[in-house]
Amino acid sequence: MAAQSSWNSLEIAKLVVGVLTPVTVAVLGAVFARALKRAETRQWFNQKLVEKRVDLIGQLLPELNDLLCYYTWVGEWQTTAPPDIIARKRRLDRLFHANRSFFSGAAAAAYGSFMDGLFQTYVAPGQGPRLRTGVTSRHGDRRKAFGSGWRREWAGLFLPDGEQTSREEVRRRYDALVGVLGAEIGVTTS
Asked: Model-level pTM?
């Protein structure tokens, strides 16, 4: 009878293993499938986020570059009136801040730093931002470049020499911003 009893225990163990193996495989398969589905969903979400960022950055960069040109006195700075520069700032602020949730904190900080380097804001109630650049510099004279269309009141939109941001600092902040925006979409620079 003892042999019969051990034989029954062996058969029971085989039966339990035979039943548990497919159940274990099924459970592991379900867990793996669920994890795979989560990974696919996350990958899809990340792809959509990158696509959105690419679209937004594509809208931001030409306008940011125009500001860079104006403040560094290169390119077509002569064709832009000071009120247009302020209007460009407002468009960019609206676009960036309305879509702030699509960017990292680093991008927001770099954007804020760039804009703070270009504009003095919150000057006085009801008064718009002032430009942290000059009417004249060793690189040119905005009045002469703009010609007969220049208005005297525009001179009040500029800060005095001691409060202006240097071309080098504008360039540094711009490069930092563009670098962060590039990193937002996986572009790295060397």
From this structure: 0.80
In a domain, 70, yes or no: yes
Does residue 156 lie in a domain region?
yes
Q: Secondary structure of the chain in the HEC alphabet? A: CHHHHHHHHHHHHHHHHHHHHHHHHHHHHHHHHHHHHHHHHHHHHHHHHHHHHHHHHHHHHHHHHHHHHHHHCCCCHHHCCHHHHHHHHHHHHHHHHHCHHHCCHHHHHHHHHHHHHHEECCCCCCCCCEECCCCEECCEEHHHHHHHHCCHHHHHHECCHHHCCCHHHHHHHHHHHHHHHHHHCCCCCC
Domain interval for residue 168 = 54-184
pLDDT on residue 63: 96
Residue 135 predicted with pLDDT over 80:
yes
Residue 12 domain-assigned?
no
